[in-house]
């Protein structure tokens, strides 16, 4: 499938401001800016297996499109939500368990790059990955 492969973060746009809006402290924001995140995606129909590896942690997530699951961000923020396909875009809508606010994340392939976009409380950011 389109998303299959191993993707390594190449650059970010407005990511530190986004993390600040999410409530991530300055030390963790500085570290996260240089986390060397690598995402491996394996899609089989509506099922996904995603492995996220960084300088700080490695986790593996299995999800099915449209099915709600729980997830923790690297800073410990706990979320609940689901991914869905909207055309060529993989869109995740997650609710924070601590404050009930919504985080929206999208993944799309543009020009051979995986563009992961985030939106939280009026702040948007992107992380761009290359194979």
UniProtKB/TrEMBL annotation:
GO molecular function per UniProt: retinal binding; retinol binding
Keywords: Retinol-binding, Transport, Vitamin A
The Cytosolic fatty-acid binding proteins domain, residue ranges: 5-22
PROSITE patterns: FABP (PS00214)
Keyword Transport attributed: yes
Transport in keyword set: yes
Pfam families, per the entry: Lipocalin (PF00061)
Leader sequence segment: none
Transmembrane segments: none
Domain of life according to the entry: Eukaryota
Family designation: Belongs to the calycin superfamily. Fatty-acid binding protein (FABP) family.
Known function: Cytosolic CRABPs may regulate the access of retinoic acid to the nuclear retinoic acid receptors.
UniProt-recorded name of the protein: Cellular retinoic acid-binding protein 1
């Amino acid at each position: 499938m389109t998303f299959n492969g191993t993707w390594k973060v190449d650059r970010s746009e407005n990511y530190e401001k986004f993390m600040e809006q999410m409530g991530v402290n300055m030390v963790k924001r500085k570290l996260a800016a240089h986390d060397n995140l690598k995402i491996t995606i394996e899609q089989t129909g509506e099922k996904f297996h995603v492995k996220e590896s960084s300088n700080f942690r490695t986790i593996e997530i299995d999800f099915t499109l449209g099915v709600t699951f729980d997830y923790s961000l690297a800073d410990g923020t706990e979320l609940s939500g689901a991914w869905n396909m909207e055309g060529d875009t993989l869109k995740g809508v997650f609710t924070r368990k601590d404050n009930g606010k919504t985080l929206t994340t999208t993944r799309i392939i543009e020009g051979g790059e995986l563009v992961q976009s985030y939106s939280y409380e009026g702040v948007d950011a992107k992380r761009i990955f290359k194979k």
